[in-house]
Give the backbone structure.
Amino acid sequence: MSPLGLRQVYDRLLHAQGPQGWWPAETPVEMAIGAILTQNTAWTRVEVAMANLRGAGLLDARRLADLPTDVLAKHLRPSGYFNLKARRLKALAAFLADELDGDPSRLARMPLDQARARLLAVPGVGRETADSILLYAAGHPIFVIDAYTRRLVERLRLADPTAPYDDLRDRFERELPRDAALYNDFHAQIVIHAKDRCRKKPRCQACPLRPDCAVASGGTE
DNA sequence: TCCCAGGTGTCTC
DNA sequence: GAGACACATGGG
């Protein structure tokens, strides 16, 4: 069992990194598109594909849904799995266009369970992708469990990192207040920490998750 | 050259 | 239900 509670972990990350107010996209539609494109892919590759879509005027659910799969796949090539993601993105875009007037933030008007079930019924939208859209595009209070979150869980021995997705999500949601802004920022803190600190400096002596962390105790990096 | 990156669906046992 | 595998590019 970790000596740190989840709230304490969040407070340390927040203190060290500052509030993130985060999902690296401009609009709810871009967030939903990014949630598909980032599946098992580094975000740097997603940004290239997103730039292609933006340049082609395709950051729009109806246009994406109507585009031939092979044409869309060409735009998505830099993000990897481009044939697969073209099919998945068209399926999500069709759902958004047909049922939400192209605006994923309209999921906020539905009860969370209903909105999640609707998303999970879209081919290629699994738990993590659905929850990313629900939290970041629609503002529902649901915690996103991704590879970064599992690594944090493993490192701090918060739970079994191989536990089923919903078990880990329940763990976070039980121990934290039901607050979309908190879940949004906590997940962002985990990602930023993993990418900017621990991945580049695995032996970082100023890691805010260390008990003797200089950053968390008010020292300097 | 090899490993890895913010998953999901399908198939097999 | 669990595990293996396919899906693909490009940076380090």
Remarks:
- The radius of gyration of chain A is 18 Å.
- Residues 34-36, 38-46, 80-81, 84, 88, 123-129, 132, 144, 146-149, 187, 190-191, 194-195 of chain A lie near DNA strand B (CB under 10 Å from a C1').
- Chain A is about 55% helix and 0% strand.
